[in-house]
Specification:
About 25% of the residues lie in helices and about 20% in strands. It is of the alpha+beta class. The protein has one domain (about 10-120). It has a 3-stranded antiparallel beta sheet, with no helix packed on it. A two-stranded antiparallel sheet has the order 1-2. The termini are far apart. Bound molecules: zinc ion (ZN).
Length: about 120
């Protein structure tokens, strides 16, 4: 079962919300296949100490496998990739305005707070 390993309630995302993220994103943004059972919600802009509930909104959360989720926290190359691709945002960036790149589909997407994602163009940085 997809996402079965994900503990409901962790990271401020409950099981019902996580099902909506899975339905929206379908796969890990790193393009991996076969790790669906390890998918977790990733907060793009960190919630910081104490956890800001406002950053639990859908535009700030994307699904990724636990492997990449760990690498972007521990590996400099992946950390840079996460920033370049909009998987990780700075505190001053607005998730609704910042597209992210999906390596599986090779498209940039904007996401809203109604669990929609829309293909968009991203100007070269
Ligand atoms: Zn992956």
């Amino acid at each position: 079962m997809v996402g079965a390993g994900y503990g409901a309630g962790a990271d401020g995302v409950n099981g019902r919300q996580f099902a909506l993220y899975l339905a929206r994103d379908l796969h890990c943004i790193c393009g991996c296949v076969g790790r669906e059972d390890t998918l977790v919600p990733n907060h793009r802009a960190g919630r910081g100490m104490g956890g800001s509930r406002v950053l639990d909104r859908p535009a700030n959360v994307i699904v990724m496998c636990s492997s990449v989720n760990g690498l972007i926290e521990s590996n400099a190359t992946w950390a840079k990739r996460a920033r370049d691709y909009g998987w990780k945002l700075s505190r001053w960036q607005v998730p609704e305005d910042e597209p992210f790149y999906d390596l599986a589909t090779r498209e940039w997407y904007l996401i809203d707070n109604l669990y929609h994602r829309t293909i968009t163009e991203k100007a070269a940085a």
